[in-house]
Amino acid sequence: MRPLRVEFAPKPSASSWLWVGIGVATLVVAAVQAWHLKDLQTQHRAVAEEANQLSSQLQARSVAPAVPDSQSNSIPAYAEDARAVARMAAFDIDSLLSEIEAVRISGVRVLSVELSAQERVVRVELELNEPSLSLRYLEAINVSEPHPRWQLVRSETTTGAALTSAMIQRRLEPTGR
Fold this sequence. Notes:
This protein has a four-stranded antiparallel β-sheet with strand order 1-2-4-3, with helices on one face. 47% of the residues lie in helices and 18% in strands. A hairpin with a 6-residue loop joins strand 3 (151-157) and strand 4. The protein has five helices and four strands. It is elongated and about 150 Å long.
């Protein structure tokens, strides 16, 4: 008869060592992840605390007056525009525009009228069919003046273009209003 072999504590096989290695590796990875999680939570608390401080500073600034008392009695923002309107009101703009409208010469078109109260000048830009019309327009607009008030500032003819542009200007005198 053959002897009967019975093993009550079997020898570990290669596959069981593999499972032990996988378990140890899993524990190491879990420990590293837990360490990183702890670092991230610490960083999160620090950032949240800084955000709370900045938020409280922002609220404190918004409660404080936006304009210091020294500037509260200063000139309002619209004051410069109001001064410009007041300066323009000192000039007789109606008669000036009537003067420009009264001159009608075929081949001359008024493109723009610029009133500058600060410079005390009115500029009129013209479009002309031919260059000589700028002088005719200037003579026609100055015809009722004892001495010529309107002056030719520039006259341009573009090569290849059939039209000429010119600009005339006049100094503004305040009225007795």
